[in-house]
Write a structure and sequence with these properties.
Elements (H helix, E strand, L loop, with lengths): L1 H5 L4 E8 L2 E11 L4 E2 L5 E3 L4 H14 L9 H4 L5 E2 L2 E2 L5 H5 L12 H7 L2 H7 L6 H9 L15 H15 L3 H10 L24 E2 L10 E2 L15 E3 H12 L6 H7 L11 E3 L4 E4 L5 E9 L2 E8 L5 E6 L7 H10 L2
Antiparallel strand pairs: 1-2, 1-14, 2-3, 4-9, 5-6, 7-8, 10-11, 11-12, 12-13, 13-14
Helix pairs in contact: 2-8, 2-9, 2-11, 5-6, 7-8
Length: about 350
């Protein structure tokens, strides 16, 4: 953690749970203007860690017989995935969850980046509300990366669609289903699905970004954003204690029946970064010491997070960097689970 601060991360917060109890620590600062330290209780934007929550709800719905992962996107969202080679009739819900759909990632669209990510557009549009249909529309202006099921490619569009499938299957906003099915049963008091709310609840630290395509240049406070631009792909807020509780509960079968948990942990290996596999909203990571952990990373403007746990859920780690341009998160994971 201190090495990450030395590398330019303003501040780090981490929490560990294992059979000996819990341990938490902070490094660096939560506010570069006042030098106020981070708190071990900090809430932060968890970015794509949201995907594990979304996949969990979809798998619960499958266990209840309300949908099948082999259903096509077209069955649930008719006419939505269509154009420039995209065709929802040939894409299954499973392919959304494991990123084998080939659907273009809307966040890679150059206009989107200049409008919502890079400096000039960000300050003008940071409070804009974007509907999930607008996000999907951006993706449909591009060709798919590959035919469905033939390769692997991470796409946030997949999970915006997954969130809409939850809403179609239940009649409720996907965030309400996450609250009802996961947050409340596990007493995740720091975890929220903010929708269009631009603030991070206290206690929390400031979040920083470069708002540029390089890691040099000025640092900007970008704590306040409208997270609707991430929707079900990455809008959630949590803290390290809640994330540890969530992944431990998930991996020990407290949220999913055995069949659905096994499906979640069935991974795609080809095309995924080395020593990594991607299941249904969850990543498998083989560490340098030979240990395998399960979890997810999450990046959103001003925030970079990781949550990981051993397969039996007995040892869990969650941490956050309050920036989006530096810091070796892999080193933190290796240090906790493998030691020096």
């Amino acid at each position: 953690m201190e090495a990450a601060v030395g590398d330019g991360v303003p501040g780090v917060v981490a929490r560990v749970k294992d059979r000996h109890g819990t341990w938490s620590a902070v490094s660096g600062v939560g506010d570069i203007r006042t030098d106020e330290p981070r708190s071990v209780h900090d809430r932060y934007r968890v970015g794509s860690i949201t995907k594990t929550f979304v996949a969990t709800v979809l798998l619960q719905l499958e266990a209840e017989g309300r949908l099948s992962l082999d259903d096509t996107v077209e069955q649930w969202l008719p006419g939505l995935v269509l154009g420039n080679g995209h065709d929802g009739r040939g894409i299954t819900l499973r392919q959304l969850l494991n990123h084998t759909s080939g659907i273009f990632d809307y966040t890679a669209d150059k206009t989107y980046q200049h409008t919502y990510v890079l400096k000039d557009g960000f300050f003008e549009h940071r409070y804009d509300t974007l509907s999930p249909y607008e996000l999907i529309g951006i993706a449909m202006r591009h060709e798919p990366g590959f035919p469905p099921g033939t390769s692997w490619g991470y796409s946030n569009t997949n999970y915006v669609l997954a969130g809409l499938v939850i809403e179609k299957a239940t009649g409720n906003p996907y965030g309400d289903e996450i609250r009802h099915r996961v947050i409340e049963p596990l007493n995740l008091h720091a975890t929220t699905v903010p929708g269009t709310s631009t603030k991070v609840p206290r206690p929390s630290s400031r979040a920083y970004g470069k708002l540029a395509e390089t890691t040099t240049g000025p640092t900007y406070d970008i704590t306040e954003i409208n997270p609707s631009s991430a929707h079900a792909a990455g809008e959630m807020i949590s803290d390290s204690a809640d994330l540890n509780r969530f992944y431990s509960a998930l991996l020990t079968g407290k949220l999913l029946p055995a069949r659905q948990l096994a499906a979640m942990k069935t991974t795609v290996e080809e095309g995924v970064p080395p020593r990594t596999g991607y299941g249904l909203g969850i990543m498998k990571l083989e560490l340098g010491c030979g240990l395998t952990v399960w979890g997810h990373s999450g990046g959103i403007r001003g925030s970079s997070s990781v949550a990981a746990a051993t397969e039996d859920g007995s040892h869990a780690l969650a941490f956050n960097f309050n920036n989006d341009w530096s810091g070796d998160s892999q080193a933190v994971v290796e240090a906790e689970f493998c030691g020096k």
